[in-house]
Amino acid sequence: MTNEDFLNHFDSIFNTETIKRVNLQDKKLLIELYRRLEEDLLTTNQEYKEVRKRWKKIDEVFTKSLTDEQLKLYDKFDELRNEMHSIEFEQVFIFGYIIAKELDNESKLKDA
Fold this sequence. Notes:
By secondary structure, the protein is mainly alpha-helical. It is about 85% helix and about 0% strand. It has helices spanning about 5-15, 20, 30-40, 45-65, 70-110. Helix 3 (about 30-40) crosses helix 5. It is elongated and about 60 Å long.
C-alpha cells in the first residue's frame, strides 16, 4: 500500500480526514522500523502458542490426506495467507501511528 492508500483506507473506516492532516511521506523511519522489527513485534504469547498447537494438530491430519498435487496447492495457499497477514500487520502498525497523530491533533484542538 502507498502512504496515500493507508490514509484513504483509514479515513474510509473511521470517517476522518487524516489525509488532510497526517503526512506519511516523511515517515521513512516508521516504515523501516516496522519492516526490521516485524518478527520481533509479533512475539507470541502463551495463548497464541496454545492455539497454534491445536492448529498444528489439525494441519498435520489434514495434510496427510492430501495428494502431492494438493499439497503443492496447499503450500501456495499457505504462502498467500502469510502474505495477507503481513499486509494486515503492517496496516495495523501504520494505523496505530495515524491514531496517535489524530488523538494528538484532537487534544490540541480541545486545549486551544
